[in-house]
Every structure is written in structure tokens, then in C-alpha cells.
């Protein structure tokens, strides 16, 4: 089923993945208005990587694929700064972008369906093991959620978040629809780094 939405957009220099958590500090008036509206109406907004333009104080164009963000926690500081935490929900395809009178970006989007889960193929077990090691080392909240480490979709998204990748590389991983293909791209990226760091014999 094709689902179309019109949503406020938050262009950023960061990629948000489904299931990921992202803390944000909100200080621009247009985004304070957006957060207030989303909290009142329980609406989600779109996080998308900037393809051109600036994150602060101006307009920006977004990459075509982004992620819906749900506000799961918020706190207003004494200095007026608003701190929120959002959770990545469903991916979307940006069909049309425009700017509201208050300079807030808005987009017509089509939601992209992901399967609920997909069993991790045995040849990618080492990637799951790597994620588990990272989660334990850095005390990540999901380190004890053992079942998820067998889900190809979840493992791919979490590795895309935690590995030291450029924003454009993360965006490329977000845009891949097949979770096994995403794992293969991650494995290739890790192997490339390993080869580059291996001293000449």
C-alpha cells in the first residue's frame, strides 16, 4: 500500500536510521515551532541529510531518502534551549520539497516499507559479533537485546550508525532497500579499511 504524507523536514548533516536514537538541541525559531507543533499533534517530522546548503540559519536541499523521526523525550533548559531525543521510524522518499513562510522546510513524501525483521544469513554472523562487541564496549542500550542481533535489518542499521563512516556513506546505506545487500556493503567497507590499514609486507 502506497502511503503519502506531507511533513515538516529537518535537514541535517547527520543520517538517522530506523530504530536509531538521536539527541538534538533546538534553538532556531523555526525548529522550536516545529517541535511544539509535533508535540501538540503527536506528529512526526522528517530527518534528511543535506545535499546542499546549510544546517543553521539558511535553507538546505535534502537527499531523496530520509527517515521519519518521533520525539520520545524533551526538556526545556533555563536558557530557552530545547533538548529533544528522537527515534528513527520509517524511511521515506522525498518527492517534493518547499519552504513555509517561517522558513521551515516541508516535504511531500512516500513511505518506504521495510520488513519487520529478516533472519541474519550465516555468512554475516561476524558482522553481528562485531556489533555486539561495540555495544558492550560502549555500553549501548541494546547490548543485552540478544534476539535483535539475529535480525539482518536491525544489525545493518545499527552498524551503519556506529561504524566510522562519512555521512555520504551512511546515506548510501540508508538508501539500500535489501537488508542483505546493506550487510554486504558494510562488509566490503570494513574490508577496504582493513586493507588500507595493513602495512606493506
Percent in helix: 25-40%
Number of helices: 5
Residue stretches low in confidence (pLDDT < 50, at least 5 long) are none
Strand content: 25-35%
The rough form would be described as globular
Class per helix and strand makeup: alpha+beta
Number of strands: 7
CATH architecture of the largest domain: Roll
Tell me the name of the CATH homologous superfamily of the largest domain.
LON domain-like
How many angstroms separate the termini? 55 Å
Largest sheet: 5 strands, mixed, barrel
Secondary structure layout plus pairing:
Elements: E1 4-12, E2 21-26, H1 29-41, E3 45-53, E4 60-62, E5 65-76, E6 82-99, E7 105-111, H2 125-137, H3 152-162, H4 167-175, H5 179-197
Parallel strand pairs: 1-3
Antiparallel strand pairs: 1-7, 2-6, 3-4, 3-5, 5-6, 6-7
Helix pairs in contact: 2-3, 3-5
Overview of the structural elements:
Helix content is 32%, strand content 32%. The protein contains five helices and seven strands. Strands 1-3-5-6-7 form a five-stranded mixed beta barrel. The protein has two domains: 108 residues, Roll (Archaeosine Trna-guanine Transglycosylase, Chain: A, domain 4); 76 residues, Methane Monooxygenase Hydroxylase, Chain G, domain 1 (Up-down Bundle), CATH 1.20.58. It has 201 residues and is of the alpha+beta class. A hairpin with a 5-residue loop joins strand 5 and strand 6.
Amino acid at each position: 500500500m502506497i502511503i503519502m504524507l506531507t511533513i515538516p523536514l529537518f535537514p541535517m548533516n547527520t543520517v538517522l536510521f530506523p530504530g536509531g536514537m538521536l539527541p538534538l538541541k533546538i534553538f532556531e525559531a523555526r525548529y522550536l515551532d516545529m517541535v511544539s507543533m509535533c508535540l501538540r499533534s503527536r506528529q512526526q517530522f522528517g530527518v534528511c541529510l543535506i545535499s546542499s546548503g546549510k544546517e543553521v540559519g539558511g535553507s538546505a536541499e535534502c537527499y531523496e531518502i530520509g527517515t521519519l523521526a518521533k520525539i520520545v523525550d524533551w526538556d526545556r533548559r533555563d536558557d530557552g534551549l530545547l533538548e529533544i531525543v528522537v527515534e528513527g521510524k520509517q524511511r521515506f522518499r522525498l518527492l517534493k520539497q518547499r519552504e513555509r513562510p517561517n522558513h521551515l522546510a516541508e516535504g511531500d513524501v512516500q513511505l518506504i516499507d521495510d520488513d519487520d525483521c529478516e533472519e541474519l544469513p550465516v555468512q554475516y554472523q561476524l558482522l553481528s559479533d562485531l556489533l555486539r562487541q561495540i555495544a558492550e564496549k560502549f555500553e549501548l542500550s541494546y547490548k543485552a537485546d540478544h534476539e535483535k542481533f539475529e535480525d539482518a535489518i536491525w544489525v545493518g542499521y545499527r552498524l551503519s550508525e556506529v561504524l566510522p563512516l562519512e555521512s555520504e556513506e551512511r546515506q548510501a546505506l540508508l538508501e539500500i532497500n535489501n537488508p542483505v545487500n546493506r550487510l554486504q556493503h558494510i562488509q566490503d567497507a570494513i574490508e577496504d579499511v582493513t586493507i588500507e590499514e595493513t602495512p606493506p609486507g
